[in-house]
Amino acid sequence: MKEKIKIGAITIGQSPRKDLTPEIQDMLGKRFTIIERGALDNYNRRQIEKELSPENGHDLLVSRLRDNSEVQFSKKRIMPLVQNCIDELEQRRVEVILMLCTGEFSSLCHKALLIEPQKIIHSLLSRLIRESLGVLVPAPEQADQIKERLKKLDLEVEIQTASPYKDLEKFAAAISELDKTNAEMILLDCMGYNIQMKKRAAQLTGKNILLPRTIICALLKELF
Known about the structure:
Layout (H helix, E strand, L loop, with lengths): L4 E7 L9 H8 L3 E7 L6 H7 L8 E5 L5 E5 H17 L4 E4 L13 E3 L1 H12 L3 E6 L5 H8 L5 E6 L6 H12 L5 E4 L6 H11 L2 E3 L1 H12 L1
Parallel strand pairs: 1-2, 1-5, 5-6, 7-8, 7-9, 9-10
Antiparallel strand pairs: 3-4
C-alpha cells in the first residue's frame, strides 16, 4: 500500500477548520492526509484584539476561530506566526504546504512546495476573463485592496461583500447585486466560501462561479 501524501494546511485563523478541511479532504480523496496548523492557534480573542488588530483596510485579514466565530486581524502582525506554522509543518516532513487563504503573502521561507491560492487564481483570471469580473470578499474594508491587486489584469472589477462565516441571506443578496453587473464570472475570493455557496451563487446568477478551494484541490490532485 502506498504511503499517503502529507499536505500541511495553514489557516490564518485557528485550526482545526471544521468548515473547510473536511470538504478539501473529500475532494482530494484517501491518498492524501491533511496536517493542520493555525496562525492563531495559541491566541484567544482578547489577545487577538489587543495584539493583532489591523491598522487599515490594506492590512486586514478575515478568518475563523474554533468557536466558529469570525475574527479580523492584521496581516503584517500575523506573518511571523504563519512562518512558525511553515517551520513546524516542514519538521513533520509534509510534501506540500497549502495556504488556506486567498490573501497576498510574501517573504515566507520554505523548503517544501508552498501553494498560495491567490497567485494561481490570478493567473487563471488573466486568461479566463476578457472585460469584467465580479468578486465577493468577506469585509468591506478589503474592497480597495482587492481592486488594487487586480489592476494588473486590466479588468473592470465589480465588488460586493458578504462574510462566509455569517448570514447566508447576506451572501445571497450580495451575489444578486453582482448579477446586475456586466461580470462574466464571479470569484468567491476567500477560502471560507464553500461548495454549497458556489452552487447557490450559480443558481442565482447562471454565471460561472470560481471557488478557490475547488480550484486548489484540482491542482493538488493533478500534481500528485
